[in-house]
Amino acid sequence: MSMYHVTLSGVTKAYGKQKALDNVDLQLKAGECVALAGHNGAGKSTLIKLILGLIHPTQGQVQLLGHDAASRAASQVRSQVGYLPETVALHPSLTGTETLDFYARLKKQPLSANHALLSRVGISQAAKRRVGTYSKGMRQRLALAQALLGKPKVLLFDEPTTGLDPASRQMFYEIVTELRNQGSTVLLSTHALAELDGQADRIVVMKNGQKIADGTMSELRQQSGLPIRIRIQL
Ligand code: ATP
C-alpha cells in the first residue's frame, strides 16, 4: 500500500453551479495529523464526507487506504475509518455502555474492548448512567469513543473541540497524540487553530472550496493572502 492513507487528486464537488470543493489536491500520510481550517462554507465538511464516501466527487478522485473512496471495494476499508461528526445523535435513554455496544455491533466490532474504551475517554464511572444525564463534554467523550472503535487507521473529526470544557479538550488532544504514535492518520476540521499548539503536523486552509494554503504553522506565518481570522491565530 502507498505511504498515503488518503489522497485527493483534482477533486471538485459541485451542487448545481456552486462548487463546494474546487479542484483540491491533498495527501495524508500514515501517522500524520492535519488540521483543516476555513470559514463556514469553505468546504471542510464536504471534504470529510468525500473521504468517507458519503458523497462522490463531480470530478477527480479520492483514494482511501488504497481504494477509490467511491467504489464498492472501499466498503471493506471503511471499518478502518473513524468519524466524529460535528453533532452526534446519541439516544438519551441508553446508558454509555449500551450506546457504545450499539455502535460496536453496527461496526461489527467485539464488545469486549468497550469498557477499556470508556475508561480511556474518562467516562467509565458514568458508563451505567443514561446519556440523557450526561454533560456536553461527557457526550462528546462518548462520541469520541464511538469513533475509536476498532482502532481505525484514519480518523476524521469535524469540529471536535467546539464548546468543550478544557479538561475534555486536553483529553481529546492526548488521544490525538496516541493515535499518531500508533500510525493512524488524523484529519480534524477546526475554527480554533490557536488551541492546536503543535498537535497538527500541517494546516490546510480552505476558502470558497479551494485549498489556499498547506503547510506548518511557521510556513503559514510567512504566507500572504490568508483570511484575517486565520492569520491572527497563527
Ligand atoms: P461549516 O464550518 O459551516 O460546516 P464547511 O467549511 O464545512 O462549513 P461545507 O459544509 O463543506 O463547508 O459547504 C461548502 C459549500 O457547499 C457551502 O457553500 C454550502 O452551502 C455548500 N453545500 C454543502 N452541502 C451542500 C448540499 N448538500 N447542497 C447544496 N450545497 C451544499
TrEMBL record:
Alphabetized, the UniProt keywords read: ATP-binding, Cell membrane, Membrane, Nucleotide-binding, Transport
Instruction: Name all ABC transporter domain ranges.
Output: 6-233
Query: Coverage of the whole protein, first to last residue?
Result: 1 to 234 of 301
Q: Its Gene Ontology molecular function terms?
A: ATP binding; ATP hydrolysis activity
**Full protein name:** ABC transporter ATP-binding protein
Which organism's genome codes for this protein?
A: Advenella faeciporci
